[in-house]
Write a structure and sequence with these properties.
The structure is a homotrimer of 440-residue chains. By secondary structure, chain A is of the alpha/beta class. In chain A, helix 1 crosses helix 5 (194-211) and helix 1 crosses helix 9 (337-355). Chain A has helices spanning 12-26, 36-45, 109-113, 143-146, 194-211, 229-237, 271-281, 299-302, 337-355, 384-393, 400-407, 411-423, and strands at 52-57, 61-62, 65-66, 70-79, 85-88, 103-108, 116-117, 139-140, 153-163, 166-174, 181-187, 219-225, 245-251, 260-263, 287-290, 311-315, 359-362, 395-399, 427-430. Chain A is elongated and about 90 Å long. Chain A binds chain C through residues 362, 364-370, 372-373, 384-385, 388-389, 391-395, 407, and chain C through 62-65, 133-134, 228, 231-232, 235-236, 239, 266, 293-295, 300-301, 303-307.
């Protein structure tokens, strides 16, 4: 792959705006882990990338879990005793607890309050709540409004259905030169929430679009799935294929203004972990690396011991650390096109690194070659120190990332030096084994 | 073993007082590495635990060493020229250098002084001196008294015997479910000294008493031995059994008010070393971990290269760091029941950890199990994070201590989570190999 | 080898003065990578040590390189329009760019300036320049003088020859008890420059002289070579012998007043690397350890991947860090006899350590031996702690350096303890394998 073919876009800011625009289009839809909101979301993504839409029927056993009934909702409100709609699903889909069973009732305030959720510490925000796997119903509202509720009877409607149907997810496979895959996984089951995780959905979509126009060694698989049950369903349906995954990223919370946080795979030193550490370490910007821990997003499933895939998580501020998480304050203003572009750029750089992490063998291992007579000291883009490091460590046992790590040089400098040396006939590429085993 | 069966006592303070009381009973006895003082000490311990008393005859070869003659003493004094007893063995057995040969003589002050020991830097304290393996005699006294000695003839008596007899030690074996043993070793050869090492003797006695009333997986062996020669004698007589020792502690200096100091075994990362580091690291109290070094107490012998046993040393302030060491100031006031109780508690917690350091294998390794449907999120004593860590790492290759170390969680939380998961049928216990090799 | 036979001299200061005197004798000679200056240098060294002088003909292929034409120079100057010599090779050989082709011309100032080199930031210093492997010529002068040059015609002469001949180097082999070699390599191709690298040449010469009068286990090979091409030529001509090199040092820049800097071999933990770290770490003086990097002096060639020899570099201030480097300010006043002596002493201590880094096996591995009955506690030069460490770790798997590293004791204390224990029959020496493989 030549330098020109790399995944990183020329116009990073443009990418940030494109992602932000797509997120804005998706924002109003009422998504849940099943149902038509998820399907409408995939329809919009399909305007950008040729997603396959998969349907897994209610009741399907997926490892320890069962695909639940499909949930759909048409309308929901609370009217006060004057007949005025004081809480309206059409104003914000966060007002209804996701997966609420259908309700039509007149309730006194005391009864109603058992089904109301608000945030005393953030009185203007509406919380996001779900009742997956538990038969219940409820409404969410701001605490400020909650405090204004007067005694009296309330007319409550939730016009939802919970019926046999299916779990829906989107999948895109971009074949590369090898069957070894890089997995990009984004959960897409949240309603009007921006950072968690329309940011991941939007970024992954634009990354797939971008990759679709480029050559790549690895095959790529993009998943747009409901959290937890979606990852479990995909792994269950694709158990025999999972071994092809050579690297992967769960992409979530990539639009806020915080610094980038990379969470390592369970293996800890997988190529994806080292690539992420290298790219972030040379970015000149603050960042954090976290060791694997078995709570968080869908890396929980990819890194379960029976799979133990080399899949890390790429986020900005971890969800437990920003108060807007799972509230109406995680809105389109909470995410920034600059952050989205920066996240895109760094993910593309990590994937570039894995794409180009080759192993070369020196044909001149005894003493240094005479670089001067080959004009290599002035080779465009290659500096002398990088040339010397690559020659010294290209004994067949070191990848370019190994050389970058040991020398402290940026990967790009090492790669450019290796390419210049290969053009000069001093190095030959050697086959290497991918993280997933087998030739690359 | 259920939580209720654990080694730690309910009433820690009570244990501290019991140890202190036993030490007070033992304090006046004139012990040495052989002789009747040692036997009387074991007689008192036998009121609490069913010790076996072993006698190894003088002259027995034990590796490079030979069991020495037995030393006994009836009386000793120095009288001044007026016939007044100015130094009296009956007032404190520290006044006579241990293993002094019999003496009966009239000596001028200049001659006498060659056999007197005092501490100019601590003028009120009487030092503790021995002359093992060297034919000599002497008296110890305070420097303040030493300075008052006037010219004149002194009447000196040491009514001791050095004769063929035996080296005595106490041994208690508590069989468990496996032949693999945990060794607790305390030296008991010092006369009226409290911290070094009646504290260790008292603690080990009460620990044995406590264990005698409980179920345990490991067998336990308690040794009450003279320092150095006793450990060497036991190892020599039990060479073929030493391989059963899966973990061990030399218990010494456990009553002073300083922080706990754990000295690692020669192996450095033995289970006992990791268990001690874990318990102390989660104690919320200051402590120190020392690497193995081949000087100190009987860990010198247990960790000699021909045995290399996983035996660490549990102390509070190391002996080289407190001036009271080997002086009359190491008395019953120097030790505290609170410190004794704390030492007991920590040792019991370390042994608990080893007892309960099981390996489980998950029966649900592919993706997470659905904990909610099993009511595990509300399981008494188990928290969600611990449940997730145990599920994630129970691939058959990690012990509970491995999981506690990697997760940073206290061992108890990990164990409780594992027990809850095993009850729910998600984990099964797998046999593990003890530190000493062979099944546990 | 007894303590008396060690490499370190009794009179360190004397050695520093001897090295300084020899450097002074060599200083005026105009050396380059080939030619008579190099031969004259070797002639002077041969007054001290029985060097073999090797000649490698021009045109010989040595790996990727070719031995260049031989360069010699008789005279060179620049005369101004008044016929006055303003730059004169006979005043300082630095005035002529090394390997300048012959020139005889009258040039206007503008033309001349294209061939002049000076240092604006150090206006009183004359730079040192070369034009190896590039057909050119030039003069070096102080920037102060450069600024005084007036318009006019200049008469330029370089009376040099570039003809088929040979590359010359000096080699001394001192056979020891084993064929395994220790390599000491110094580049000797610089003209009137003191620290870089007459200091290395002088030190290596005196070290060879010193070793010639002593017994040693290892064989020693000293190389006095032109930089880069000399090391490549030697490796090419001795490819099959290189595997005998068990340890080595490139000795360069050892006379300045800065702290010692040791650069590790590519292997990083070779015995030479550990020995250097130990000696410097126990010196009580500031020092630096650098990881291997593939730029610098001839360690580039010895540590190329096809050889990967355990050869480190011993210097004081690294060349990139002192402004006098490659200028007329690197003169005899820049180096100090005290620094030269200190460098000599440390190198000798490192070699001593490797010479004496034996493996002993204890004959008393079960429990401690009774050191007292053997009088070992009072053995001259051995302290009790060292005795205990050596007994504890002499299980056949630890060298004396291993023991010194683990105990934190100085190597000498460990060695003396081992010798005392061996004399007492408690240890026997075991054969060990050198870094180069094969028995020592």
């Amino acid at each position: 792959m030549s330098i020109e073919d790399r995944i990183r876009p020329g116009d990073a800011t443009g990418i940030g705006l494109e992602i932000h625009r797509l997120m804005g289009e998706l924002f109003p839809i009422c998504r849940s882990i099943t149902g038509d909101g998820f399907r409408r979301t995939l329809d919009i993504l399909r305007r950008h990338i040729p997603l396959d839409v998969r349907e897994v029927p209610t009741g399907t056993r997926v490892f320890d879990w069962t695909v639940p009934k499909e949930w759909n909702i048409r309308d929901a409100y609370i009217k006060d005793s004057k007949g005025e709609k004081i809480v309206d699903f059409r104003a914000s889909n966060l007002h209804v607890v996701s997966y609420s069973r259908p309700v039509r009732a007149i309730l006194p305030l005391a009864e109603l309050k058992k089904h109301l959720h608000s945030l005393p510490e953030h009185p203007d925000w509406v919380p996001y709540k779900t009742t997956y796997y538990k038969d219940d119903w409820g409404f969410c509202l701001s605490h400020r409004q909650f405090l204004t509720l007067e005694e009296g009877d309330y007319d409550v409607l939730i016009d939802s259905t919970l019926e046999d149907g299916s779990l829906t997810f989107g999948e895109l496979y971009l074949p590369g030169e090898t069957e070894k895959e890089i997995l990009i996984s984004a959960h897409a089951c949240h309603p009007s929430l921006a950072n968690d995780n329309l940011s991941g959905v939007g970024l992954a979509t634009m990354l797939a679009k971008h990759l679709g126009t480029r050559q790549h060694r690895y095959s790529y698989r993009f998943l747009f799935i409901p959290g937890t049950i979606g990852a479990i369903a995909w792994l269950s349906l694709n158990e025999s294929r999972a071994g092809r995954i050579a690297a992967g990223l769960v992409v979530s919370g990539v639009g806020d203004r915080g610094e980038i946080t990379y969470k390592r795979s369970r293996r800890g030193l997988a190529e994806i972990d080292r690539a992420a550490a290298h790219v972030l370490g040379h970015s000149g910007r603050p960042y954090r690396l976290l060791d694997f821990h078995p709570y968080g997003y869908d890396e929980r499933q990819y890194c379960s011991p029976g799979f133990d895939l080399p899949v890390g998580r790429f986020s900005r501020t971890p969800c437990a650390e920003y108060p807007e998480y799972h509230t109406s304050a995680d809105n389109m203003a909470f995410v920034s096109a600059v952050s989205l572009a920066d996240s895109f750029e760094k993910i593309a750089a990590i994937l570039d690194l894995i794409e180009e992490n080759r192993v070369y063998q020196s044909l001149n291992q005894k003493c240094e070659p005479q670089l001067g007579k080959r004009g290599l000291y002035s080779s465009a883009g290659a500096n002398e120190i990088a040339l010397l490091w690559v020659m010294n460590l290209s004994d067949g046992g070191h990848s370019l990332l190994d050389i970058a790590e040991r020398s402290g040089l940026p990967f790009a400098a090492v790669r450019e030096a290796a390419e210049a040396l290969a053009r000069a006939g001093l190095l030959v590429e050697r086959p290497r084994t991918s993280e997933a085993g087998g030739p690359l």
